[in-house]
Design goal:
Fumarase C, Chain B, domain 1; two-stranded parallel sheet; mainly alpha; 6 strands; 3 domains; Ribonucleotide Reductase Protein R1, domain 1
């Protein structure tokens, strides 16, 4: 770092060194930084800007640096400020003067933008794989429970019967939208910024197309100022992660409710539950609760990044040092959450008998009765009012729909006949045979589509 301080008459204050150092977290970019530097050295040699011998020494030295970091023997020093300077300083110690040629035609501004994009691309790939794993778990659960009928809810009140498989596949659809968002994010990250210099480009005859091919980028940036100042790709990752965590949080909420004694729709596996320090009978859904809770930290990371970026003039500003921790924390939260949720779901056990018992409460077939009258010629709004009065009567007389006599039904409409007794949970589900509906046939089609997506795309 001494060459950077040549402009100044005295060294930085010790507190400033600690305050400005990012080594404690950006060391995680070391492999991307070394990849970028090797590609840059090869390009410089290819263009005749440095000799092939110098490039070979640089590449060999960088390989040694990578080995030291991976073995845990690399000495990180706060005064070296960031991972870029730490690697360069060690390269000087290993190969001497040729190390000084590596930074020809680049700035730390386009260097860190490159490293960060490489990291995001890899993080997106890992995230996509984890989403697919969870989707496949949901598909397997739906496949195994195709015939199970459960209550569907609105306002957390009993609404209409649905197939359990249909309910589970709703989360498949949410995750599929998440998958699409992350794939879009990858496209935005897949742009090479190296060659932009500090902000205006470089004067050397560099070959950016060669760099893009070496580093696996689909295109190169079109504006050097935007390239070093842009963090949209990082914000987009966190934004997509926030939506994905929201979906996991909704699933977590249902897992928490379903595992309670009030619902008892599921039994969580012991490996994904915890106990109480006081109450020996407790089996707590802590994995789901933590997933729900960790959603907030991802939201916070998104707001932090948006706030950091909102007032920055072009081009690079040191505020951008704050981007790494927000992204690292988001990746470290989202990917394990997807993975642990997959394991939790894969091992839980459904209790169809309790779901069936829940169906018997709350007049869940009321809508089917209204539809029955419509099919007999009654206008829907009139039918709705008739069934509302019928339910009110049943509540006041402590009756259920299946214990009411035909005479009682006919007090509310002469259209009721013996066939009203044919309305069941199964007939209710089967009747909703429209694309996207909960009928067995439609759920079978949805399962087929989900398998094709999860296995082939």
């Amino acid at each position: 770092m001494s060459h950077i301080r040549s402009r100044f008459d005295k060294p930085p204050d010790e507190l400033v060194v600690k305050y400005t150092s990012s080594l404690q977290y950006d060391w995680r970019l070391y492999s991307y930084d070394i990849r970028g530097s090797i590609a840059h050295a090869r390009m410089l040699a290819k263009q005749g800007i440095i000799t092939s011998d110098d490039a070979a020494q640089i590449e060999k030295g960088l390989a040694l640096v990578a080995e030291e970091i991976e073995k845990g023997v690399f000495q990180f020093k706060p005064e070296q400020e960031d991972i870029h300077m730490a690697i360069e300083a060690r390269l000087f110690e290993l190969i001497g003067d040729p190390a000084g040629k590596l930074h020809t035609g680049r700035s730390r501004n386009d260097q860190v933008a490159l490293d960060f994009r490489l990291y995001i691309k890899e993080a997106v790939s890992q995230t996509l794989s984890s989403i697919r794993m969870l989707q496949k778990t949901l598909i397997a659960m739906a496949e195994a429970n195709k015939a199970v009928v459960m209550p569907g809810y609105t306002h957390l009140q009993l609404a209409q019967p649905v197939l359990l498989a249909h309910h589970l596949l709703a989360y498949f659809e949410m995750l599929e939208r998440d998958y699409g968002r992350f794939k879009d994010c990858y496209k935005r990250a897949d742009v090479l910024p190296l060659g932009s210099g500090s902000l205006a480009g470089v004067t050397f005859n560099i070959n950016r197309r060669f760099l893009a091919e070496e580093l696996g980028f689909s295109e190169i940036s079109h504006n050097s100022m935007d390239a070093v100042a842009d963090r949209d790709f990082a914000i987009e990752y966190i934004s997509a992660a926030a939506v994905c965590m929201m979906h996991l949080s909704r699933l977590a909420e249902e897992i928490i409710m379903w595992s309670s004694a009030e619902f008892k729709f599921i039994e969580l596996d012991d490996a994904y539950s915890t106990g109480s320090s006081l109450m020996p009978q407790k089996k707590n859904p802590d994995v789901a609760e933590l997933g729900r809770g960790k959603t907030g930290r991802v939201y916070g990371n998104l707001m932090s990044m948006l706030t950091t970026m909102k007032g920055l003039p072009l081009t690079y500003n040191r505020d951008l040092q704050e981007d790494k921790e927000r992204v690292f924390d988001t990746v470290d939260t989202l990917v394990p959450s997807l993975q642990v949720f997959s394991g939790m779901l894969d091992t839980l056990r459904f209790k169809p008998e309790n779901m069936k018992n829940a169906l018997d409460r709350g007049f869940i077939l009321a809508t089917d009765l209204a539809d029955y009258l419509v099919n007999k010629g009654e206008a829907f709004r009139n039918a709705h009012g008739i069934i509302a009065r019928l339910v009110n009567y049943a509540v006041k007389n402590n009756k259920t729909l299946d214990t009411m006599s035909l005479d009682e039904y006919r007090q509310f409409s002469p259209l009721f006949a013996n066939d009203v007794k044919k309305i069941t949970m199964e007939s209710s589900v089967a009747a909703r045979n429209v694309p996207g509906g909960t009928s067995p046939g439609q759920v079978e089609l949805a399962l087929k589509r989900a398998k094709e997506i999860a296995c082939n795309r």
